[in-house]
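On clarity, I found the account of how folds are encoded harder to follow than it need be. Since the whole study asks how a given chain folds, the encoding of that fold should be made plain. For illustration, here is how one protein appears when written out as sequence plus structure tokens:
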Amino acid sequence: MAFMGIEAELVARLEGIMPEEVKVLTAQDLANVKEQTQPAPAVHVIYLGYKPIETHPIVVLGETWMTVIVVRNARTLKTGEALRLNAAPLMDTAFDALNRWRPASGYKPLQIASAPLPTYQNGYGYFPLVWSTSFNHISACEEAS
């Protein structure tokens, strides 16, 4: 198993369950997209990093991923109520798709983790869900010995 080895699986899982109009995008997809032209509704799949959980005898690495539900709605800009109403069912769908889901690549099942607060900007709402998982990492040096 490799670092960031589940990105394609996360994208495929979400594409398979989200409503057809929802685009599933990675950080690479978004690299040159300006906020005003980004697709919405969408789910952004973002790698947040790793941490060692165990280093002996097998290296176990924990990875953290964030899925951000992105919606656009200019109504109720001051309160964000319309954005929250649009985002809630998509958050439920993403949660149901990923919570305790075991990727085929050998990672442990995803677990929901603490997330930052939603943000609101220019008629867009960003609603994060954070996921933790782990995998055993065997280095090429260990395989050769």
The first helix runs from residue 7 to 17.
